[in-house]
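Give me the 3D structure for Molybdopterin synthase sulfur carrier subunit.
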Amino acid sequence: MRVRIQVSVPLLLSDCTKGKTKFELEARTLQEALQLLVQEYPLLRVHLYTEQGEVRKHVLLYYNDDNIAWLEKLDIPLAAGDKLRVLQAVSGG
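Predicted structure for Molybdopterin synthase sulfur carrier subunit (93 residues):
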């Protein structure tokens, strides 16, 4: 069963999400939610993923409180109230 989850993206990427920084997606698993995110907002793909399909080094994707890079698998069943956050690492000097 699909559930609604909250998604947030940085203001810098809102031009890729029709001006929205917060919205909802309906999915069964985290993996499906990530696929739907770039399917519904295709302009995000180039900002989030490399040409090889890997998450870009300066991008952090958080599922609730966990960076998805720390997760062993992405086919985690979603529950109502779950959150997916897109963050961009910023560096400078």
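The radius of gyration is 13 Å. Let me know if you want a second pass.
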